[in-house]
Amino acid sequence: MKAVLTTEFWVVFQMILLFLLIAVMVRVIRNMKTAPAVEKSVSEGNDAAGKTAEKILALLEPLLAEAEAAARIFESQIMEKKLLIRELNEKLDSRIISLNLLLNRADACLASKTFGTVDDAYAGAGISDMQEAILVMFEKGLDAQSISEKLSVSRKEVDLVIALKMKFIAMEKES
Question: What is the SS3 assignment for 126?
């Protein structure tokens, strides 16, 4: 069976590689801190160990730089995905609101069997106009029951529009 390497695999692989590189760097730095004390106790003839340590550091520096660059790329990709998810959530919420408003309006019309008795100021208003009217009335201080009676829409529809508006306000404050 052919193995498919997914994005998640590469993300985990990069994270493990970065962790290992950090562990090696910590180990090397700790050894470098203890190296001066060891050098003082050992004679001047141990230049070979110092040169070897310098070679190892020279080899690890490009790997560390590469790991840091990969981490930056990974972080930017995560930020892009967060933005895309936020945009999709907002669009989906908007469509859900529209669908719920249509369903609630249909339920209200069927329940009352009075089609077309909406307040003249909002007669023929579209969904977004109705949402705007609900929000304007709410901001004026009217309660949900008064708004639903005035616009001839269900109480659930009014509550939904108000709740979603509060959700959008909360999301904006988080950003």
Answer: coil
pTM of the complete model: 0.38
Long-range contacts of 130-138 (CB under 8 A, 24+ apart): 130/101, 130/105, 131/97, 131/101, 131/161, 134/158, 134/161, 134/162, 135/161, 135/162, 135/165, 138/162, 138/165
Scanning the structure block, which residue is given the tokens 């001047």?
A: 44
What's the rounded Cα separation, in Å, for the pair 165 and 175?
16
Distance CA 142, CA 150 (A): 10
Q: 141-155: per-residue pLDDT in tens? A: 888 888 888 888 888
3-state DSSP helix/strand/coil % of the chain, to nearest 5: 85, 0, 15
8 Å CB contact between 155 and 145: yes
Q: Is the dihedral of CA 146, 147, 150, 153 positive or negative?
A: negative
